[in-house]
Amino acid sequence: MEIIKRGEIVTSTFVHLGDEDALPADGAPMDVTVTLARWQSERQALRAHPGAVGVRLSPDDELEPLLPDLDALALVAVEFPRFTDGRGYSLARLLRERHGYRGELRAVGNVLRDQLFYMHRCGFDAFELQPGKSIHDALSAFEELSVRYQAGADEPHPLFRRRVGSGM
Amino acid sequence: MYQYDIEDQRLVEERAAQFRGQVQRRLEGSITEDEFKPLRLQNGLYMQLHAYMLRVAIPYGLLSSTQLRKLAHIARVYDKGYGHFSTRQNIQYNWPKLADVPTILDELASVQMHAIQTSGNCIRNTTSDHLAGVAPDELEDPRPYCEVIRQWSTFHPEFAFLPRKFKIAVTGTPDDDRAAVRFHDIGIRLVQDPAGGEHCFEILVGGGMGRTPHIAKVIREFLPYEDLLSYLEAILRVYNRYGRRDNKFKARIKILVSELGIDEFKRQVDDEWAQIRDGGLKLLRSEIDRIKANFAPPPYRELPPHDLRLSAEGLSADPSLRHFVRNNVKAHRQPGYCAVVISLKAPGRPPGDASDTQMDVVAELADEFGFGRIVVTHTQNLVLPDVEQQRVAELHARLREHELHTANIGTLTDSICCPGLDFCNLANARSIPVAIELGERFDRLDYLADLGEVSLKISGCINACGHHHVGNIGILGIDKIGEEAYQLVLGGSPGNDASIGKIVGRAFNRAQIVDAVQTVLEVYLRDREDANERFIDYYRRVGEEPFKEALYGDHQEG
Lengths: 168, 558
Prior knowledge:
The structure holds two protein chains of two kinds. Chain A has a single domain (2-162), classed as TIM Barrel. Chain A is 23% helix and 20% strand. Chain A has six helices and eight strands. Chain A has helices at residues 36-41, 43-48, 87-98, 116-122, 135-138, 159-162; strands at 2-5, 8-11, 15-16, 32-35, 53-57, 75-80, 104-109, 126-127. In chain A, a hairpin with a 2-residue loop joins strand 1 (2-5) and strand 2 (8-11). By secondary structure, chain B is of the alpha+beta class. Chain B has 18 helices and 21 strands. In chain B, strand 11 (329-331) and strand 12 (337-342) form a beta hairpin. Chain B is globular, with a radius of gyration of 23 Å. Chains A and B meet through helix 3, helix 4 and helix 6 of A and helix 1, helix 2, helix 5, helix 6 and helix 9 of B.
């Protein structure tokens, strides 16, 4: 599947497993993501899985159960069931700014071009667009607004600390 | 007033270009109407009954004459020659064509204006006291802090898709809240620091009108100024994560606060705040000073403190001028000056509407009489904040030439009114014709003077855009088995003595509602102690019984 990652179109090898989907039985090194609940209940088996493993967060998940394992994860994906559900933006900022997560942070689900700017600012660096939408078109969405009043993943200080004469 | 710097300016220009692209993609069909909806909504573009409606932000209600001329120009060229000033200190155009909207945004950007976040489930235009900066009882000018909030909230990446819309109001006058801060998602009051330092903020949360009105609760009594943004961010983050998203009608922060209780909500906010309080959001003195410098007083002339001519005009033989001086002229902190309220509630006109010509005239008068500044009030009028008292009669005469001299500020016919079923696709009933009929029925200035201070607020549906919950007299339009009907609500107040009105009994039909208001007024005039007992004081003293008796008589209400 093609995704946008760090500003480029790349192919992702991850398969999003539902809670009922079995891991590959033959030990094939397939890269997978699982829900937080599954990660918690099958942590040992998943750690032994030969492919890469990521966790998929739903907007109402709390982050605390995941924190001890953040370093072990190849990917954290945050689901946007509807693009109007903005909880994932807070999860992203908390993962990056409070919990120091440095790995891939991917937006999945109802991800559309016109939300990418906000998502990127909150710390997402990978985007699985809603199927059927032009990924090439979406690439241009990140630079439409160059002025950022707030600090964000792309900007360490709010504008008021960057203005000439602000003392910084 | 605040002047954009190069970055502020670049942003509104880039936004106009971005929206042009979005409109183009919609017109080409590469995005669906469902996908376009949240984009246009974050730009103040609604689909209404007949056409698109464009809402333009007027931050904390403050305009320059240049900006007002541009608003007049937009009304003339892209609309039907008028605009509607709303209860959120914004202006709405009812008839723009979708293909013209990007060009309108370019026009707005050329005078430091925009339509960013004037709708959608995001942080909306921050509102304030229409006498900010000139009121004699003000502790500190709230507008620099409104501007700080405007910038922080503009395209805030985390809070673009909140559970529901979010409104913040700020007042700098602790003793007289003219901004209805207790009926906002967050209300902010500048208060004296008990330790005697700089002024602090009292933060209130969870107020609102709509179908379940709430008076905001205090969440923090004394917040140091430098912590303003971190504290707001903590509240918004808790709301964004835990506000209800399962039911649109329970999604405002007032429901979260009321379900958790203010103590638990405060605990969650304080936990979050503790993590971010000392981060990059801490405000810098230098930035506050930079913004404050934009709000420095204009070059006032030295004038004697009381102008005798103004007192005399208060007793003028011309009733229009006499009532104008009594009702529309407000006290000013600068000796010899006053603030003049221009009523947009002329008899026979929809409340809050102004024609392109009237806007041009007001802009011209602002230049001539008041340093080129105009303020939009949340009661849908305009203010010239800095007029010399000795020039009030001259100003009144000029206003009269354009039917802008209605002397009814603070009286019954200075009503707040939503667009109602004439324009809005949420409304159950028309509100503008009711307001017009009331204005025509009670158009005698001496009668209005006798009634004294009484507020009338009309909403065409339960969403309460006309603030009927906080009218001394409120009218709520409902749909009664396919017929427009109106409930009468009594006892509301938006200010420091905030209260939510109560429905007095069964609804009235369109032909009865204005009579019902007259009945209520007759009860008050008959039974009040004297002319000093205001309508709201009388209602609070006697309750609803005398009104019920007069309105429904022996008939059991059903």
